[in-house]
Amino acid sequence: MIPGGSDEQSWIQTVKIGKQVNLIKDEYSPLVDVKGLGCWPSEPLYDQIVEGEELKKYNIDLEDYWSKWQDKEEISLEYGKDFDRVVFGISIGAIPFLCPKILEENSNWKRMIESVQTCLTDAFQLWMYPDIAGLGWKYWKNEPPVLGSYIEPFDTWCDMSHLINRESWSDSLSPNHIAYFCGPSPLGITPIDPLVDPNIPKQMEKLKERVIQFLQNNVQSIWPNSVQTSGFNWGLLLNPDKTCQGPMTIESQYLRLNIQPTERYVLSVKGSTKYRLPAGKNGYSNLVITGDWIANSVLNAGCVESTVVSGIEAAKCFY
């Protein structure tokens, strides 16, 4: 977004959009069918993209802010001609990438970016042969657990086994428990220079090490039946690749490092609330901002409640 204005008022003058790929047809159909439910796939549907084979060949991640992939076209939209107002709902971590001109001219935006910090998070998901009772969870007769304030870096565990019926598994490879773990990454808060490539493949290897260490040393308190004398029983994990044994079985599970600017968790560090800008009064007459990072009337914290209320307050700007 590029600002414009006069002595009395500022507004968003230009919005530039990078067109990453060309489509074979006029529209892109992004969902895949899983048991009658439209779902987001783990990668683009390459057969709908002109450059699909190239994306696959070079393993290009179009959601990576540090990707070397070149846009196929730049689309420039002008205020008064192509749009009247702009709703900016992208998370605060992406603002240095998307709004550098605003940060150059607007001290309130610059202070907000410097004060409202974000945190990288670690996450992994396991598909396991035993159910929660078989793993030794004492309270298996109660409702499925959501556990917080456990051992960092994975201090949150959620039983997501209700999704098993929504997934497609063969009879010979079928889970009875799905576990989601997440927590703050030891990598810490937003890097000093968010524009510098953090070397994601290297950081993913470190995440893998953290997951293995956590399972080896820290799950016996919640899953006493999951450990052996040597540590975690890796044979409990669904693993279609029988060549991977022991800790390398983790390759068959899902690990995620939320490191992209839009993925990072928005923090509420001391003294930062006063620097959050509201939905409408953000310094630009035709711009409305929204998300869990703006000032709202309920909770200035990174959560769905804050996001919903911020969305309502953004909508009120159009009344």
In short:
The chain is built from six helices and 15 strands.
Task: Give a verbal description of the structure.
- The protein is of the alpha+beta class and 319 residues long.
- It has three domains: 2-20 and 75-117 and 277-316, no CATH class; 22-61, no CATH class; 120-258, no CATH class.
- It has helices spanning 52-57, 95-98, 100-105, 107-115, 200-217, 304-316; strands spanning 2-5, 10-19, 32-34, 37-39, 73-78, 86-88, 118-128, 146-147, 156-159, 177-189, 227-228, 231-232, 254-258, 265-266, 287-289.
- The strands form five sheets. Strands 7, 8, 9, 10, 13 and 14 form a six-stranded antiparallel beta sheet that branches. The protein has a three-stranded antiparallel beta sheet with strand order 1-2-5. Strands 3-4 form a two-stranded antiparallel ribbon.
- This is NAD(P)-binding Rossmann-like domain protein.
Overall geometric form: globular
State the major sheet. Answer: 6 strands, antiparallel
Count the helices. How many?
6
Order of helices and strands: EEEEHEEHHHEEEEHEEEEEH
The total of beta strands comes to 15
Strand content: 15-25%
The number of domains is: 3
Q: Pairing-aware structural class of the strands and helices?
A: alpha+beta
Using the CA coordinates, give the radius of gyration. 23 Å
Low-confidence stretches: none
Mean pLDDT: 94
Report helical residue fraction.
10-25%
For the record, give the distance between the C-alpha atoms at the N and C termini, rounded to a whole number.
Answer: 24 Å
Protein name: NAD(P)-binding Rossmann-like domain protein
